[in-house]
Design a protein that fits this description.
mainly alpha; APC_superfamily; transmembrane; arginine:ornithine antiporter activity; Arginine-ornithine antiporter; transport
Length: about 475
């Protein structure tokens, strides 16, 4: 008899959700959060973000169960809004994936800088050149058909969890209530003032959403579950576990250092906090673990955007060239196209003071589009099938992601539209390859006009300093 694939129980599936979502962001979240919000506002922000991400996870779980015939996150947008909607979602997901690699590059170089000070903040010339070498090494490995092995994943998971657990334990022991409660709300008066607290929540939104990039993949694992009934429970338990880890890692530091001290820390902030608490060995441990962890994440995220463009080419949303495979079954052209664009963007980091935050802000802004399309299709599907509880999940999620696009800094979202212009050209070429003479409908043409206007506006905002780099 053929061997059956081992199915995941509720514990294993919950662990998968957590391990798949933990990335490099948590190692730097302490400093980024302190730059945006006081502890009280940060806690409220976590409640809001946790609710929004839960709506996304529940939508993905429901749609994956009800529409198992759809593959790829962009397929929901294509089914609900047509081929151009699928392209908009898929291109945003692809854009987010390789921009995430840029964030990985800057964080890795910052970690290396702890041992080799010449690397500075991770965005000087030697950092850029070193990151470029690794970037092309990733291209070579994935193009040769190398996939993330089980042993590599195990090593990476340990590298993530050991310093995290150590940090949280030491932070709890060293926690000072008087430091934490000093100006709890981060306002001028020291009291709760709605406008000032809400402003802090808005400023911290991009930081908080960045650490959840990747959860959409973990939430789509229902086909590997022992039974469908545990998928929703595992998703909620996994998200709860993530929120506990994220909240502890970002809130406990407020009781270790003042907000001003935290905001001035270099990256990865967790390493510098441990250094202040236990000495240089703590920082060394965090930075070594982070370098190994990022290498594995970078490898996975090199495969992800190439796989996305491959699937889009199969759906006739991109030219056939993107769907061509070499003898190792790797999409060489898709990989090369993505790597060249990543390389060009890496060099632009020479001109920014906050390379890491700039890169992850663009990455997160880009994926908002894909997440929004998921919740919108959840609304459409639930309405058509009269599933009213699921309809409200989609509505709440859609409202949240529309607000998140605006609240987290509309400039970053608009800046992503500049790359959409290239994508629209490729989409039009793909449609013509398939004999479609009228590529865009009247509504789609209006959307394109808004994309072009948004892209031009972002360039103006960039040169006038309205977009922080």
């Amino acid at each position: 008899m053929p061997n059956k694939q081992k199915r995941l129980g509720i514990f294993a599936l919950t662990a998968l959700v957590i391990s798949s979502s933990l990335g490099s962001g948590i190692f730097g979240i302490s400093s980024d959060m302190a730059s945006s919000a006081g502890p009280g506002a940060a806690l409220l922000a976590w409640v809001i973000v946790g609710f929004g991400v839960l709506m996304l996870c529940l939508s993905l779980t429901n749609l994956n169960e009800k529409r198992p015939d759809l593959s790829g996150i962009f397929s929901y947008a294509e089914t609900g809004f047509g081929p151009f909607g699928g392209f908009i979602s898929g291109w945003g997901y692809w854009l987010s994936s390789w921009l995430g690699n840029v964030a990985f590059a800057t964080m890795m170089m910052s970690a290396v800088a702890y041992f080799v000070p010449a690397y500075g903040q991770g965005n000087n010339l030697i950092s850029i050149l070193s990151a470029s070498v690794i970037l092309w090494l990733m291209f070579y490995l994935v193009n040769r058909g190398v996939e993330s092995a089980a042993i590599l994943n195990a090593v990476i998971t340990v590298c993530k969890l050991v310093p995290l657990v150590l940090f949280i334990v030491i932070a709890v022991i060293s926690f000072k209530a008087d430091v934490f409660s000093a100006n709890f709300w981060g306002t001028v008066s020291g009291n709760f003032e709605f406008s000032q607290v809400f402003s802090q929540i808005q400023k911290s939104m991009m930081v908080l959403m960045w650490v959840f990039v990747g959860i959409e993949g973990a939430a789509m694992m229902s086909d590997r579950a022992e039974k469908k009934s545990i998928v929703g429970k595992s998703t909620i338990l996994g998200l709860t576990g993530l929120l506990i880890v994220y909240i502890l890692a970002s809130i406990l530091p407020y009781g270790l250092m003042t907000r001003e001290e935290l905001s001035k820390l270099g990256q990865p902030a967790m390493g510098y906090i441990l250094q202040a608490l236990v000495g240089t060995w703590g920082a060394a441990l965090v930075n070594i673990a982070l370098i190994i962890s990022i290498f594995g994440c970078w490898l996975s995220w090199t495969m992800l955007p190439a796989e996305t463009t491959l699937l889009m080419a199969k759906r006739n949303l991109l030219p056939k060239k993107f769907g061509e495979l070499n003898e190792k079954k790797a999409p060489t052209f898709s990989l090369l196209f993505m790597t060249v664009l990543t390389q060009a963007f890496v060099f632009t980091l020479l001109f920014t003071d906050k390379a890491y935050s700039f890169a992850y802000s663009l990455c997160t802004a880009a994926i908002f589009v894909s997440w929004l399309f998921v919740t919108l299709y959840q609304v459409i599907y639930s309405y058509e099938n009269k599933e009213w509880s699921q309809l409200f999940i989609g509505l709440f999620g859609s409202v949240f992601y529309l607000w998140a696009i605006w609240a987290s800094g509309i400039g970053y979202f608009l800046l992503c539209l500049t790359v959409y212009i290239l994508g629209i050209y490729l989409y039009a070429k793909a449609r013509k390859e398939n004999g479609i003479s009228k590529v865009f409908s009247q509504k789609e043409s209006i959307v394109i006009i808004f994309i072009v206007i948004g892209a031009l506006l972002s360039i103006y905002m960039l040169f006038t300093g309205q977009i922080a780099v």
